[in-house]
Structures are given as structure tokens and as C-alpha cells.
């Protein structure tokens, strides 16, 4: 009889749980039993592991074999346990020393020929192992760079089970020849999953992506875009078709600052679990951009799926931009599901299989037409939509959802002089991104001793007591509250925007002009403040 144990990691959402993989051999009819609440893909690992061991020139034990996954109460799924199961079986059969794998964490899928295939979620799995105190992990060679992002962990990348056996047995390591240059690599199939990302993509470098200089005119909307990027404020763009709402929103990721190290790890973990992490790019440096179609379901937006919930669009846009074009065409149920993550920065999805907490701190950008035909705000354009239809169309964006949107901008049609270049070329994204980066640095310095990093995260109580405005600056906001134009949450968000305007202008605290611009961008009521009122003086 023989016994061996090693470890692997089960993913629950984007969080990992270290699982002990135990193998026990005893006399009896040859059989392979896998216990510990495995799903279908994990149950099938019995056949993959047996074939991989045999094809790796190792002997399969002809005894009664039981493999247990502990804790047994945690649901386990996926093919990432194959490597750990094979190592435990070989340890119980004394092909390798059981002591050499007792403190190892092994993650990877096995092919029938013994090759180790990459799996999704390596980064969060290794993070969980490091937090549990493990310092040595074995992963597929293709994902070794991703695992190496975790500090304090020794990573071994292997191409095959034969290599792992040789390393653990102090034998000469066989040289597994890589594929010839130009040949397709089937091993990458485990990394990229078609359809896993809901209209998502990683923002390109600003020098290669769409540029704000391409947008003709729209000075107010451009100013709102800069404020949204500097303070991570949610944005609503309304206007007729062809005014440039989508062009503006698509250029928002290009003026956002690069992700910090911690933010990069958070984004990479989500994309790794979702199966949309680009091969060869283990760490995401740019904010993601997610733009689902208006037919997206509530589950695809906030997370869901069979069994344990998977990340939705709000999590795929974590630390980046979630753009909902034609926002009124989304179902009301789907839009209202965004209200909780907009406030908390995460989403808790409860299903029969378990409860998952997913990160969802994103910048929401909405684009909407004023009516079904889109010509309601155009003079002499011939809008024939009945008033009742216009009200119903605009009511699809509920009041509680809009109350969480800091900036609401009316995008006017482009004038002839702007469109033909007679109005002058607008600023490029690089120049705007520099101002955004400076404003964020100023806010981060002010909030250095707090749990917040951008103005949109500061609670209202702190804004009214600790970070006060100039004397008399709140007079207009107080009048709007008395008239019912502004809610308590709305006042907090106006103060946050005012601080961002002041940061962009290089001032120590907001003044009356900053509050007036923030109120105008919030309520849509002109306050007599020029668009450039937030510029440096």
C-alpha cells in the first residue's frame, strides 16, 4: 500500500482555495475512484491522467486507487487538477518520492501524450497558494510568466509530465522540442476561449489607438471626457445620431493613466479566469475596455452561467471602461443591475452552486439618443415621435441609475466649420492624458493616508467635513437641493467632480466656478461658466 499527497487550487470566481490532493493505493481489484465533489470535466481527468502516465514511460499501478480532493465541501471543476492528480498517483506508487511533492502546488491539464497544457486562472490560483504559505508551484510552461508575477513564489514551468518526473527524481530532464516556427500551437487553446469576453478588449497604447484629435468640435463633451478620466466619474452622452458620442467614448481609455502594479494584478487575474488574456502578455498594463451589445443579458453584464458564476462585463471592465452604446435599448433589468456595483466597486452573485464576489470598479460611459428616431433635439429635423413615446424611451434609464452618473452631457451636432477643419484641430489624446495623469497624481497625494485613490471614491461625509470647498462655493448647490434638482447623493457627486475640476486646474480646493461647472455637467442647466473654466490660471 502507498499514500502520497500534494496540492492544487480550486477557483471560486476570481478567488482561489488551496485543495489537498491525496492518493491512496491498496490491494484489491484495479480501479480508479475520484472523490471530493468534482464536476464533469474533473471526473474525466481519470482517463487523461492514466493515459498521460502510461505515455510518459511510467507504470500505472494495478491496484485499487482512490484520489481524494480536500476540503470535500468545496466544488471543484476544470482540468487544472490533472497535474496534481498525476503527481499524487506517482508518489503513491513510489515512482517519485512522496516527500518531494508534499509542499508543491501543481496546476495544469494533461494531454493523453503527457504534455502539460495551459489552463485559465493561473495568476489568481498562484496568488491563493502564496497567501496560504506555499512557496513552490509547478505550472505549464506557457503560463510560467503569468505565475511569476506573484512575488515570493518559486515557479517551475514544465512542458510535459516526463519533465516533471525527471525534475522530482533528480534524473536528466528530457528536452521536449518546441514546435517549428510558423506552425500553429494547439497548446494555446487552453488560454483563449472564444465568446468568454463580452465585447471586451485591452486598451491599446495611446499612440496606436484612436485619438481625440479625430473628434471634430464637441468642446463641452471633450471637457467632460477629460474630467471623467481624471476623477473616474461616470458619464452619460446624449445627442442625435452622428454627433460623435461613440467616437468620444471609444477614446476614453486612451486618456486614462496606466494601471498601477496592484491594479494590473487585479485586471490580469480577472482576464485570466475569463480566458481572454493574450498569450505572451502575462501582465495587463492598460485599462480594459468593454462594450457589450445592447442585447446583452443581465447575467452577461454582472456575471453568471451554469454552476459557479463567471465574470461578467462589469468585472471584465474592472479598472477600465464599460461602454454601453444605445443605452436605452438595454433591458431595464440589466441596467438596474449595475446600480450596486457602481456604488460598491464589486458585485456579489448568488447561485445555488455558491456565492461569488467579483471585482467591478469600472468607469461607466453611457450613450443615448434623445428619442427613438434620434431627431428630437434637432430644430427642423422632423421628429415625429409622440411625447408619450419620448418619455417612455428616456425613462428606460431609471432615476436611481442616473443618480449614480456624475456627468451628463448633451452632445450637439457638429457644425460645418468644425467638421471641415475650419474650427481648428482638437487636442490629441496624449496632451489630455498628461493633464489627467497630473490631476490623478494630485488627488493621490491628497488622499495618500486614506483608503481612496481617486475623487470618485471619496465618501460624501469626508467631502463635507474633511475636504471642504472655498467659503460660499456651495451656495448654488444648496439652492438646487431646496428646489429638488439635486439629491443628497447628487450633492456628493457634484463635490467629487468639483474636486476633479480643481485638480485639473492645479488649485488646492474647489471654488465657486468649479462647483458651477460640476453642477452644469450634472444637471444640464447652464450656469454661465465657460467650458474652459477649469483650466489653469
Automatic annotation (TrEMBL):
Task: Tell me which SUPFAM superfamilies the record gives.
Answer: P-loop containing nucleoside triphosphate hydrolases, Ribosomal protein S5 domain 2-like
| Recorded GO MF terms | ATP binding
Q: Where is the AAA+ ATPase domain?
A: 231-415
Tell me the protein family, please: Belongs to the Mg-chelatase subunits D/I family. ComM subfamily.
Name-wise, this protein is: Mg chelatase-like protein
Q: What organism does the record attribute this protein to?
A: Streptomyces showdoensis
Amino acid at each position: 500500500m502507498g499514500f502520497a499527497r500534494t496540492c492544487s487550487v480550486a477557483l471560486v470566481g476570481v478567488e482561489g482555495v488551496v485543495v489537498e490532493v491525496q492518493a491512496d493505493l491498496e490491494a484489491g481489484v484495479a480501479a480508479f475512484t475520484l472523490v471530493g465533489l468534482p464536476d464533469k470535466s474533473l471526473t474525466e481527468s481519470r482517463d487523461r491522467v492514466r493515459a498521460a502516465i502510461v505515455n510518459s514511460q511510467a507504470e500505472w499501478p494495478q491496484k485499487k486507487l482512490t484520489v481524494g480532493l480536500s476540503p470535500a465541501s468545496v466544488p471543484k471543476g476544470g482540468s487544472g487538477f490533472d497535474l496534481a492528480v498525476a503527481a499524487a498517483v506517482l508518489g503513491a506508487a513510489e515512482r517519485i518520492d512522496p516527500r518531494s511533492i508534499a509542499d508543491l502546488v501543481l496546476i495544469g491539464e494533461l494531454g493523453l501524450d503527457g504534455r502539460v497544457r495551459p489552463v485559465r486562472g493561473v495568476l489568481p490560483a498562484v496568488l491563493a497558494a502564496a497567501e496560504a504559505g506555499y512557496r513552490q508551484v509547478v505550472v505549464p510552461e506557457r503560463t510560467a510568466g503569468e505565475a511569476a508575477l506573484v512575488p515570493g513564489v518559486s515557479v517551475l514551468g514544465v512542458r510535459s509530465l516526463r519533465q516533471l518526473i525527471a525534475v522530482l527524481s533528480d534524473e536528466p530532464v528530457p528536452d521536449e522540442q518546441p514546435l517549428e516556427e510558423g506552425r500553429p500551437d494547439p497548446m494555446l487553446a487552453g488560454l483563449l476561449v472564444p465568446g468568454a469576453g463580452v465585447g471586451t478588449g485591452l486598451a491599446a497604447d495611446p499612440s496606436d489607438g484612436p485619438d481625440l484629435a479625430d473628434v471634430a468640435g464637441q468642446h463641452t463633451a471633450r471637457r467632460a471626457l477629460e474630467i471623467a478620466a481624471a476623477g473616474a466619474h461616470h458619464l452619460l452622452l446624449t445627442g442625435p445620431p452622428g454627433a460623435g458620442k461613440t467616437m468620444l467614448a471609444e477614446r476614453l481609455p486612451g486618456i486614462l493613466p496606466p494601471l498601477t502594479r496592484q491594479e494590473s494584478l487585479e485586471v490580469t487575474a480577472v482576464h485570466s479566469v475569463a480566458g481572454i488574456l493574450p498569450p505572451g502578455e502575462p501582465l495587463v498594463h492598460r485599462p480594459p475596455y468593454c462594450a457589450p451589445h445592447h442585447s446583452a443579458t443581465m447575467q452577461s453584464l454582472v456575471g453568471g452561467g451554469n454552476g459557479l458564476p463567471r465574470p461578467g462585463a462589469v468585472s471584465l471592465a474592472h479598472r477600465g471602461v464599460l461602454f454601453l452604446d444605445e443605452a436605452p435599448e438595454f433591458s431595464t433589468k440589466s441596467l438596474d443591475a449595475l446600480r450596486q456595483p457602481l456604488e460598491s466597486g464589486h458585485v456579489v452573485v448568488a447561485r445555488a452552486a455558491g456565492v461569488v464576489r467579483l471585482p467591478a470598479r469600472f468607469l461607466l460611459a453611457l450613450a443615448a439618443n434623445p428619442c427613438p428616431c434620434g431627431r428630437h433635439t434637432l430644430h427642423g429635423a422632423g421628429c415625429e415621435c409622440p411625447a408619450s413615446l419620448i418619455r417612455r424611451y428616456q425613462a428606460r434609464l431609471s432615476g436611481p441609475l442616473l443618480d449614480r452618473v456624475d456627468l451628463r452631457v448633451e452632445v450637439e451636432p457638429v457644425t460645418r466649420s468644425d467638421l471641415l477643419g475650419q474650427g481648428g484641430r482638437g487636442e490629441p489624446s496624449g496632451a489630455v492624458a498628461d493633464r489627467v495623469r497630473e490631476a490623478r497624481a494630485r488627488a493621490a497625494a491628497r488622499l495618500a493616508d486614506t483608503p481612496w485613490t481617486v475623487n470618485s471614491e471619496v465618501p460624501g461625509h469626508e467631502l463635507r467635513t474633511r475636504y471642504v470647498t472655498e467659503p460660499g462655493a456651495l451656495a448654488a448647490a444648496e439652492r438646487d437641493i431646496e428646489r429638488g434638482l439635486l439629491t443628497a447623493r447628487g450633492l456628493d457627486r457634484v463635490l467629487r467632480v468639483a474636486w476633479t475640476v480643481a485638480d485639473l486646474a492645479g488649485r488646492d480646493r474647489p471654488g465657486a466656478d468649479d462647483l458651477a461647472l460640476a453642477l452644469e455637467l450634472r444637471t444640464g442647466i447652464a450656469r454661465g461658466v465657460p467650458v474652459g473654466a477649469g483650466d489653469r490660471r
